[in-house]
C-alpha cells in the first residue's frame, strides 16, 4: 500500500508527487493520460520563471521531474471508484477500470477537467489553429485581431470583456434569447465599443483555409437566416467539466461537479485531499494547479504523521 496515492497526472498530480516523494513516503500516481491537459496545449507563456514553452515539452518536464524521485507512476490507468477508509488511520481504496485495486493511507484527487466542445464542423480541425478555450492562456495570441466568444454565461461574458481589451473586435454568440451572466458583467459588456452580441445564435461551423481558422457561421434561430463572420479566433466558453463523475457517491461536490476543498486541500472525507482543475479552487491554470498539488501533498503528509 501507498502512503500517498495520487489520482491524475497533470500539473496538480505531478507537483503533489514531487512534494510527497521528497518526504520519503511511499508515493504512487495513477493517471489515465500522464501530463493531462498540458498535452493539448501549444504555447505556455504564463508559468513563472519559464517565459516560454509548449505543452508537450512541459509534459515531458513533469515526467522527468517525477522520475528524479522514487514514485510509482501507473500511466493509462483510469480510476473508477473510491472507497474511503473504514476507520481513521485505515486504508482507502481506489478501484481501477481494469479491475485492479490500489490501497493508500491518503489519496490526492487531481483528475482535472475538460472543456465542453461545441461539436460543429471545423472545431477539431482548427483547435490550436484559431480555436481556443482559455482566454487567460491564449488571449494575447489574438492581439489586434478579430475574435468570437461562443457562450453567454459568466465565463463567456468575462472572456469577452477580457478579450475586448486586447483584440480589435469581439463577437459574442449566445444560443439562448438572453445572456446568462451576472447583471454587473452584462452591463460592463454592453458598455464596450468593440463588442457585438448575437442572441438566439446557433454556431453551425468554424471555417478555415485548411491550415487556420478564418470564420464562424451561425444560424439565427428566430429568422432562420444563415450568417457568416470573418475572424481569426474563436473562444469556446460553454463550460469546463470536472472529471469527477466517478466520485459523486463518495465525495462532496459543488453543483458544478467540482470537488469541494478547504484552504488545505482537504475534501469531505478525512485523508482524502484534492487539487487542481477538478476542485472548487477558482481560476483553472497550470501554476495554480501545481501550487494546489504541492499544498495537498503537504496536507497529506501532515495527516499521516498525526494518524
Ligand atoms: P489536468 O491537466 O486536467 O490533468 C488531469 C489528470 O487526471 C490527467 O492525467 C488525466 O488523464 C487524469 N484523469 C482524469 N480522470 C481520471 C480518472 N478517472 N482516473 C485516473 N486519471 C484520471 N493553463 C495555463 O496556465 N497556461 C496556458 O497557457 C494554458 N493553456 C491551455 C490550453 C488548452 C488547450 C487547455 C485545454 C488548457 C490550458 N491551460 C493553460 C489550463 C491548464 O492546462 C490546466 O489548468 C491544468 O492542466 C490543470 O491541471 P490539473 O493537474 O488540475 O488537471
TrEMBL record:
Keywords: Disulfide bond, FAD, Flavoprotein, NAD, Oxidoreductase, Redox-active center. The keyword Cell inner membrane does not apply. Its cofactor is FAD. Residues 2-293 form the FAD/NAD(P)-binding domain. The keyword NAD applies. Homodimer. Belongs to the class-II pyridine nucleotide-disulfide oxidoreductase family. This is Alkyl hydroperoxide reductase subunit F. It comes from Roseateles agri. The gene is ahpF. The chain holds residues 211 to 517 of 517 of the full protein.
Amino acid at each position: 500500500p501507498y502512503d500517498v496515492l495520487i489520482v491524475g497526472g497533470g500539473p496538480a498530480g505531478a507537483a503533489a508527487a514531487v512534494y510527497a516523494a521528497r518526504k520519503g513516503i511511499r508515493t504512487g500516481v495513477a493517471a489515465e493520460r500522464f501530463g493531462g491537459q498540458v498535452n493539448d496545449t501549444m504555447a505556455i507563456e504564463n508559468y513563472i520563471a519559464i517565459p516560454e514553452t509548449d505543452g508537450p515539452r512541459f509534459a515531458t518536464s513533469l515526467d522527468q521531474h517525477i522520475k528524479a524521485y522514487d514514485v510509482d507512476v501507473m500511466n493509462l490507468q483510469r480510476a473508477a471508484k473510491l472507497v474511503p477508509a473504514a476507520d481513521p488511520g485505515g486504508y482507502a481504496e481506489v478501484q481501477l477500470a481494469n479491475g485492479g485495486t490500489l490501497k493508500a493511507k491518503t489519496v490526492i484527487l487531481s483528475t482535472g477537467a475538460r472543456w465542453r466542445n461545441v461539436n460543429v464542423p471545423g472545431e477539431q480541425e482548427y483547435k490550436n489553429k484559431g480555436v481556443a478555450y482559455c482566454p487567460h492562456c491564449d488571449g494575447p495570441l489574438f492581439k489586434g485581431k478579430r475574435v468570437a466568444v461562443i457562450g453567454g454565461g459568466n465565463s463567456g461574458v468575462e472572456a469577452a470583456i477580457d478579450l475586448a481589451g486586447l483584440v480589435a473586435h469581439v463577437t459574442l454568440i449566445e444560443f439562448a434569447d438572453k445572456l446568462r451572466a451576472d447583471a454587473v458583467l452584462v452591463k460592463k459588456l454592453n458598455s464596450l465599443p468593440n463588442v457585438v452580441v448575437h442572441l438566439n445564435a446557433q454556431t453551425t461551423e468554424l471555417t478555415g483555409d485548411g491550415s487556420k481558422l478564418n470564420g464562424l457561421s451561425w444560424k439565427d434561430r428566430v429568422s432562420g437566416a444563415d450568417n457568416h463572420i470573418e475572424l481569426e479566433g474563436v473562444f469556446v466558453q460553454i463550460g469546463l467539466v470536472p472529471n469527477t463523475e466517478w466520485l459523486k457517491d463518495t465525495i462532496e461536490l459543488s453543483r458544478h461537479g467540482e470537488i469541494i476543498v478547504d484552504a488545505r486541500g482537504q475534501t469531505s472525507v478525512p485523508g482524502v485531499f484534492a487539487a487542481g482543475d477538478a476542485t472548487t479552487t477558482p481560476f483553472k491554470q497550470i501554476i495554480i494547479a501545481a501550487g494546489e498539488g504541492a499544498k495537498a501533498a503537504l496536507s497529506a503528509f501532515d495527516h499521516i504523521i498525526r494518524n
